[in-house]
């Protein structure tokens, strides 16, 4: 089809490579930002803390195995919801979504140690 000389081919290949690798690099940078977004980090930190509290309460015998399983199931549901929310918003969650998740976390938190 096209008769492109060797040096022109090399230039086209080099320019194409810059665009491909540049796009990959910006995708990695976006992922790092998304993972450390303050609202997501706060929600995920609370979930991790709650997970530890559930384990501790179970270990001390304050809650049954079944209660612990139910609380863990609720936490996993919130984690999934947080991920879905973030996927819809370019890797972060809105203040309203954070508030919704916090209210859900508060509900589970009140169950721990009753």
Structure notes:
This protein is mainly α and 114 residues long. The protein contains four helices and no strands. It has helices spanning 6-35, 38-60, 65-88, 95-111. The termini are far apart. Residues 26-33 have low confidence and may be disordered.
Draw up the topology in text.
Layout: H1 6-35, H2 38-60, H3 65-88, H4 95-111
Task: Provide tags for this entry.
single chain, 114 residues, mainly alpha, 4 helices, elongated
Strand content: under 5%
Question: What's the overall average pLDDT, rounded?
Answer: 79
Tell me the helix content: over 70%
> How many individual helices?
4
Outline of the structure:
The protein is mainly α.
């Amino acid at each position: 089809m096209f008769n492109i000389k060797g040096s022109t081919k090399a230039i086209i290949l080099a320019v194409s490579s810059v665009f491909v690798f540049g796009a990959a690099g910006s995708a990695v940078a976006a992922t790092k930002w998304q993972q450390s977004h303050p609202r997501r980090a706060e929600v995920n930190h609370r979930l991790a803390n709650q997970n530890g509290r559930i384990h501790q309460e179970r270990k001390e015998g304050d809650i049954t195995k079944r209660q612990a399983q139910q609380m863990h199931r609720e936490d996993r549901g919130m984690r999934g919801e947080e991920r879905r929310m973030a996927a819809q918003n370019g890797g972060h969650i809105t203040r309203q979504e954070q508030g919704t998740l916090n209210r859900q976390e508060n509900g589970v938190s009140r169950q721990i140690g009753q």
